[in-house]
Amino acid sequence: MSRVLWRPILGLGAVLAMAPAAWGQAMPYIGFVYPAGGRQGTTVQVRLGGQRIDGVDGAIVSGEGVSARLVEYYPKLGPQEMTLLREQLRELRPRQAARAKQAKWAKRPKLDRATAELIARIENRMAQYVQRPACASLASIAIVEVTIAPDAEPGARELRLVTPRGVSNPMAFHVGQLPEVARKPMVTSSFQVLGKEELAQRKRPEEEVEARITVPCTMNGQIASGEVNRYRFEAEQGQRLVVSVSARELVPYIADAVPGWFQPVLTLCDAEGREVAFNDDFRFRPDPVLCFEVPEDGEYVLTITDALYRGREDFVYRITVGEMPFVTSIFPLGGRVGEPASIELDGWNLLNAEPVLPPNGAGPGVYRVAANRAGFISNTVPFALGTLPECFEQESNNDPAQAQKVRLPVVVNGRVDRPDDWDVFEFEGKAGETIVAEVHARRLDSPLDSMLKLTNAEGKLLAFNDDFEDVESGLNTHHADSYLMVELPVDGTYRVHLGDTARSGGKEYAYRLRISAPQPDFALRVVPSSAAFRSRGSTAVSVYAVRKDGFEGDIRLGLKTAPRGITASTISLPRDKEMVRLGMKTNLAQTGEPVPLTIEGRAKIGDDEIAREAVAAEDRMQAFLWRHLVPAQALMGLVYNPSNEPPPKRAAPPVTDEDKAEAASKEPAPKAKFTKRQVAGRLRQLKRLYEEWLLTDEFYRAKVAECEASL
Are the CB atoms for 698 and 88 separated by under 8 Å? Predict the structure, then answer.
């Protein structure tokens, strides 16, 4: 890659590395959702783990047909809260025992139901306590009820929590079509001490290790450190089963883990324990897929674990098993805007399946397509629409003597259809003319790891490229597509050679090769994917520019759509910068609910002005070092009044003079003295536990009185 192409990429990488220090906002954060999906027509209770979600009062889900409501919130407890709960239990248990004994003597075997329920609630809360969590940023738990309409569209949604002071990052929640089963949620994982790792292992009862299921279905689970989950089911000879896992696509990056995500491993055994199928990834994607034709009737056992036997509560998975339609590849990988789209589907269980294509009138961009078989929707794969003329690769074009002649500009849809295959394309160029050759393959889910060469008519190498980084493809960790931008030295014939770096090939090794003059353009990413405003205040987000085909112009940024009362001044993202902070302000006191915001960038390219909407994203770290801009579906804003105190979930009883007198009589000698700050902290703890319905009125009043007496 030439020096001029490396400069902007390294610059953007440096900006990303510095970004957290530059724009760090204490926004609500969630790190996992479990279960991460549910079936159409059902209501699912899900558990979300995060931090900075105190006061959480709602949840939102993207798309139609799905709604969410907050059921309960469990903030992370500290040692002092646990001490208070133990004291409360010591008071409750003798009382319960005394009343039970009294009832027995009176031959009226009636227990105090309210006391028993409170004891059970406290014990359940204490059972989930972990003094030193493996990951503190997952330790606060929100319980949300998600209701899915029977006609809700299958596929991925985004689930967020809403707090009085902001909206969390989004996490994936999938709408499924099959019956679902879910294992018991994990308790927060304990920190593993070197040499004593076994003390932090999950203590799962033996009967919970293996679950019996009926195919087809979707299984939901979490993997703890060193854990193996097994599923036993019946299958019949000749069934073409697809076993597909969602794990990395649910939690794309786990910053403090190597390789940076949960790496599931699938093993399928027969009833005698003989391994009949295995997979630890699907091509270049970490989430495995097994396509298995059942050899004989009988029981089979499916096992899932992490490749390195790591685990904690954010190692979440969904496994779908059944004779479901599954697309392994399509051809072509795209088409031209305005022309009828026609694709060839390849995969499993696709007999009589119909492709689900981009909507009529769709503009340039990348869309998700799928197969519909008898109402069941397959996995989705990307499909690109562009504006340039298109053609198909024509074999044989494997060497310069057989090169396929093309007229520029053009997008060639082709395949490296066998190992060590090269596709060669020939065009006429003029001295001083700049030519771009770009491959879209890996970015469109093709396993092709492309390599591009440009030669002249005599075969002299003029340019070469293997991998080209595209910051827009936020989940990619191997930027395997190639890119060349070259100024032609003389008039004459030139050839573009395309092959696979690993000398592999096959019908799934498809590509889209663009050969054209530069098409200067840009894309925008806005980070984070939520913005919080104080009443009549301001906030700022970071806007990144991804410049294409040598575009070096200034970009004017501003708000395109926002509710009345939220504005932003137009600012410029200069040609020598890849990121700028965009300030926004509001004259609103509050919005009540989150509202969508759209940021737009405009730039002059030639005689035309083009506009591009910024895609919301989250800046995520992979394995301690690499950073990625992971796209989100929307930028959400919330205006809040910091002076507004949410109404108490449970009205606290007033402290009486008798409470104060009793507290004073219990003072130790010498009298313990505490600062106002310490007492304020203690009162907050009491209020939190009381509002969770974990303390009795009497206990609460007594402890508050003790606090007042200790000043």
Answer: no
In a domain, residue 137? The reply is no
Give the tokens for residue 386. Answer: 């562009």
The pLDDT tens digits for 518-574 are 999 999 999 999 999 999 999 999 999 999 999 999 999 999 988 999 999 999 999
CATH assignment of the domain containing 506 = 2.60.120.380
Pair (85, 116) in one structural domain = yes
Let me know: does 222 contact 313? Beta carbons within 8 Å.
yes
Q: Both 464 and 553 in a single domain?
A: no
Q: Residue 562: give its domain's CATH number.
A: 2.60.40.60
Question: Which pTM does this prediction carry?
Answer: 0.90
Domain assignment of residue 368, given as a range: 326-386
Examine residue 7 and state whether it is found in any structural domain, yes or no.
Answer: no
Q: Please state the domain count of the chain.
A: 5
The answer to whether position 498 is within a domain reads yes
Unique residue bearing structure tokens 């590395």:
17
Q: Where are the alpha helices (DSSP H) in 562-675?
A: 657-665
Beta bridge partners of 317: 221
618 shares a domain with 544: yes
Inside any domain, residue 253: no
Residues 6+ apart with CB under 8 A from 57: 70, 162, 163, 164, 646
Cis bond before residue 400 (omega within 30° of 0): no
Please tell me the total number of residues recorded for the chain in this structure: 711
**Which residue carries 């809260």 as its tokens?**
81
Q: Do 345 and 321 form a contact (C-beta atoms < 8 A)? A: no
Domain closes at, from 366, 386, 406: 386
- How far is residue 110's CA from residue 125's CA, in Å, rounded to a whole number? 26
* Single residue among 127, 145, 162 that ends a domain in this structure: 127
Residue type, 145: E
Peptide bond into 216 cis (omega under 30): yes
Residue appearing with tokens 């440009």: 454
Q: What is the DSSP string of 80-94?
A: HHHHHHHHHHHHHHH
DSSP assigned state of 282: B
Q: Is 544 buried (19+), middle (13-18) or exposed (0-12) by CB count in 10 A?
A: buried
- Each residue of 7-50: pLDDT tens digit? 333 344 444 444 443 344 588 999 999 999 999 999 999 999 99
